[in-house]
What we know:
The chain is mostly beta strands. It has strands at residues 2-6, 9-12, 17-24, 32-38, 45-51, 57-59, 67-72, 77-82, 91-98, 107-108, 112-117.
Amino acid sequence: VQLQACGGGLVQAGGSLTLSCAFSGRTSYPYGMSWFRQAPEKEREYVVSITWSGARATYADSVKGRFTISRDRAKNTMFLQMNSLKPEDTAVYYCAARDTSVASYNYWGQGTQVTVSS
């Protein structure tokens, strides 16, 4: 399975960006996909996840109300709409996938840089 993330960039505080993550390499869907992020000199942190079958989403408190995750089953793609961006959202964003609700994230994308200027 390959995950291809894209959509990062430089945006001013209060602006918006949309990230996407496409998976390929097999015909079956993963159980769920998630976004994580890692800022310079900080631990990687969880952002949001979505189940592929029912589109149930779980957000980190830091992004609730500002970020929206979605998936397009026909395109095998997950999206992250990020609104009201803050400088503290600056990080490399990674998409990941796992095959069950308790499995580790086996598959990771290459990361896409999001930079929010103040």
